[in-house]
Amino acid sequence: MSAADSSAHFHALLQFRGGAAAPAAAAAAAAGLGQIVQAEEYLSQAQWTVLKSTECPYATHSLLHRNLGLLYIAKENYEEARYHLANDIYFASCAFGTENIRTSGGYFHLANIFHGLKKLDLADTLYTKVSEIWSKYLSDRYQVLSQARIRQIDLLGKRFETDTGLDEAQEAEAIQILTSIWNIRESTSNTAPQKTIFVLKTLFMLYYLMMNSSKAQEYAMRAFNLAKEQHLSVHEQNTIEELLSLISAEEARPIT
Q1: Helix (H, G, I), strand (E, B) or coil at 159
Q2: In the chain, at which end, N or C, are there fewer CB atoms within 10 A of the end residue's CB?
Q3: What Gene3D superfamilies does the record tag this protein with (predicted)?
């Protein structure tokens, strides 16, 4: 089987059967043993296909190991899950780079394992890395779009859609990852408010780029209130106020 055929076969196994093995593995714990067995069967076939290929792309190896990691998390076999997620990170780094958003999912799921095992320092380091990767990606797009004022009125009287550069699945993943990290950071807001505010500002950028002004404003306001409560620097508070002003200006702009 050629590399192209192996890759196509593998993706078909993940995407066609039941709508992808990753969601199947992630939901397996809730869905019951039958779903775990089914997901394991699909992934075993995918693994066999990948191992037979001598030229399988790094990205395909990464996807396989991430799905296997999620499967073993569902089975509560955290040692195997850690092994596969480490491989996911390695292959994703080879394919995309260590600081790429497509690599961040491996870090995130590994952080969740450490958090569940109460290895909080390791989890914190990985959650920080994931937050920084997404913040860098979104900040780069946010700066370009906000400075160029891309959100303008077209000839039909509608705003141009602002592109996050992500497809629908990636946007959903970004929301899930960043919201999960924010929920974890909230428990330490009194001792490490800057980490919470960092994630809140990243969520602001995500929703701003998704044209969801109400959610963007919600997260900016949460960040501003926390900065005031924790008596953070005036500079920090002013930075967040600028985000709120940006949303207000967008909402005030007439659509004709």
Answers
A1: strand
A2: C
A3: Tetratricopeptide repeat domain
